[in-house]
């Protein structure tokens, strides 16, 4: 894979979400995997990280699961500046085999899950602008590294995530022999929708029973100052034990706080649920999930259709 060249114009521009020529040019050249050229971060980028970190810290102490807190400590994630992915990976790799891998943007679904299977986590390197700390629809490095990566230090969670990657291969395997292309695409769309919903209600927005009551392990919650507390304490949120048959048929919207969340007992429990998801996929139980959000992007479907078994 050719490396994206750094131009003079890039220096000092920063790596700000929506305004990062280095990343946008890599994307326009079709380069998915890129380097984290650390020198490109501006002082304002580091300040965004610092401010996000400082206000999250007390909320993590109250609402995050213990493994997350432990992950932050053992990875020595810095509070005052954006972390170097190489520093993070040097510590993370020996723990669970996971590593953060810098990407230029959206990763089509099959490639994303296939990365998880290889224990590589596609990681955005840009950071949200300092005047938009609260909400950004697209992921940034604070979401990916402060929200996701500490969870990858925990063996059972890491195993569940890699197992989830296996499921994408199962989907390709069980549909590969189908002659009817239209039916194959329809079935894969349903399976991708089911997997996306499962991922959303666990890895992104999952709650867990902990020694201190209900805590969060989903990264969408762990990287959101407002929603983390809301998810745990608000009367407006319905919280139920995780049920696959419900989650895979449940539509979700990404532009507001989640009104419905699911609780797992442990990461061993989560691993067993992923196993069950795969069994159900083989039995055809994911072939006709309820329509509706998320809509499956053409790129996502194509990534499955074109995947090599
Ligand atoms: Fe995420």
Summarize the main sheet.
Answer: 4 strands, mixed
Bound molecules: fe (ii) ion
Run of helices and strands:
HHHHEHEHHHEEHHEHEHH
- The value of Rg in angstroms is 19 Å
Order of the strands making up the biggest sheet: 4-3-6-5
Describe the protein in words:
With 309 residues, this protein is of the alpha/beta class. The chain is built from 13 helices and six strands. The chain has helices at 21-28, 43-63, 66-74, 85-96, 109-117, 141-148, 155-175, 181-204, 219-222, 225-233, 244-247, 267-282, 298-305, and strands at residues 99-103, 120-124, 207-210, 213-216, 238-241, 260-264. Strands 4-3-6-5 form a four-stranded mixed beta sheet. Helix 11 links the parallel strand 5 (238-241) and strand 6 (260-264). Helix 2 runs parallel beside helix 10 (225-233), helix 5 (109-117) crosses helix 7 (155-175) and helix 8 (181-204) crosses helix 13. The protein is globular, with a radius of gyration of 19 Å. It starts with 20 loop residues before the first helix and ends with a helix. The structure holds fe (ii) ion. Fe (ii) ion binds next to helix 6 and helix 9.
């Amino acid at each position: 894979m050719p490396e994206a060249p750094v131009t003079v114009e890039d220096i000092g521009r920063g790596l700000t979400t929506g305004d990062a020529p280095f990343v946008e040019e890599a994307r326009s050249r079709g380069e998915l995997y890129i380097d984290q050229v650390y020198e490109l971060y501006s002082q304002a980028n580091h300040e965004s990280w610092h401010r996000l970190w400082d206000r999250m810290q007390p909320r993590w102490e109250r609402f995050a699961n213990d493994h997350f807190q432990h992950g932050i400590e053992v990875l020595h994630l810095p509070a005052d500046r954006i972390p170097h992915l190489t520093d993070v990976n040097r510590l993370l790799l020996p723990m669970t085999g996971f590593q953060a891998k810098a990407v230029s943007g959206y990763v089509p679904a099959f490639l994303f899950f296939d990365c998880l299977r290889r224990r590589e986590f596609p990681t955005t390197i840009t950071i949200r602008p300092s005047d938009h700390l609260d909400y950004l629809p697209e992921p940034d490095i604070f979401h990916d590294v402060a929200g996701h990566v500490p969870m990858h230090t925990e063996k059972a969670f890491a195993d569940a995530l890699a197992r989830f990657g296996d499921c994408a291969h199962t989907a390709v395997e069980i549909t590969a022999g189908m002659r009817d292309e239209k039916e194959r695409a329809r079935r894969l769309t349903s399976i991708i929708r089911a997997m996306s919903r499962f991922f959303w209600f666990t890895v992104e927005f999952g709650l867990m029973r902990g020694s201190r009551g209900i805590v969060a392990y989903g990264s969408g919650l762990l990287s959101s100052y407002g929603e983390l507390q809301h998810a745990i304490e608000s009367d407006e949120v319905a919280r139920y034990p995780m049920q696959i048959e419900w989650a895979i048929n449940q539509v979700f919207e990404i532009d507001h706080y989640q009104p419905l969340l699911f609780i797992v007992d442990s990461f061993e429990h989560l691993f067993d649920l992923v196993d069950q998801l795969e069994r159900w996929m083989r039995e055809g139980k994911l072939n006709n999930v309820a329509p509706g959000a998320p809509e499956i992007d053409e790129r996502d479907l194509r990534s499955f259709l074109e995947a090599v078994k």
